[in-house]
Structure formats: C-alpha cells, structure tokens
Amino acid sequence: MGVCKKPMNRGGNVGERLAFYDYTAKKILSIKQYELKVREEIQKIKRLTRANAKKNGWIVRAHQSGVLYLNDPVDRLKGIASQRAKKLVK
Questions:
Q1: What is the pLDDT of residue 1?
Q2: Could you write out the DSSP letters of every residue in 15-49?
Q3: How far is CA 53 from CA 8, 17, 64, in A?
Q4: C-alpha–C-alpha distance, residues 1 and 17, integer Å
C-alpha cells in the first residue's frame, strides 16, 4: 500500500492511501537492466527504415492536406517556381 500527500481546498495537506497495485505477472527490473532495455529499444528504432517506421507507427503525418505550416519548406508555397524556391532557401 502506498500513501500520497494531497492538497486540500481549504489549505494544508492530507495523507491519502493509494489503491493497491497488483505486481502479479510483472517483472521488476533494476535500474541497470531498465537502462539497457531503453538503449536496446532506441537502437531498434534507429535501425528501422522510413517505410517500416511509418508502418509501425513511429512516423505519423500530422499535417492536414492543403494547410501550410510555419516550419514547412519554401517549395510548399503555391505559385513559387522551383528555382526561386531554391534562391529563397539560401
């Protein structure tokens, strides 16, 4: 059982008992093991190709179609020729 300190509306704090957490079928790792697992996952993600990253949900396109965003490249502006866009980038 855990306990937390919770602020009250009228000022001060009150101790509140937390709901029991069931650790059955859970594996508890040491900090060293946890950090190793994090590094392994990062390496797994870095090895993904762009197509696999999209397929696995790591790359999500949040742009709405037809909307221009502040950080979009200049060549996304309508009516600008490719040569002029290249000059604007410089």
A1: 65
A2: EEEPPPP--TT--PPPHHHHHHHHHHHHHHHHT--
A3: 46, 42, 20
A4: 7
Q: Are 76 and 64 in contact (CB under 8 A)?
A: no
Angstrom distance (rounded) from CA 37 to CA 34: 5
Task: Look over the chain and give the mean of its residue pLDDT values, rounded to a whole number.
Answer: 84
Lookup: tokens for 89: 């980038």
Give the mean pLDDT per block of 10 residues along the chain (90 residues).
87 90 88 96 85 77 80 76 73
- Tell me the C-alpha distance between 2 and 18, whole Å: 5
Determine contact, residues 17/5, Cβ cutoff 8 Å: no
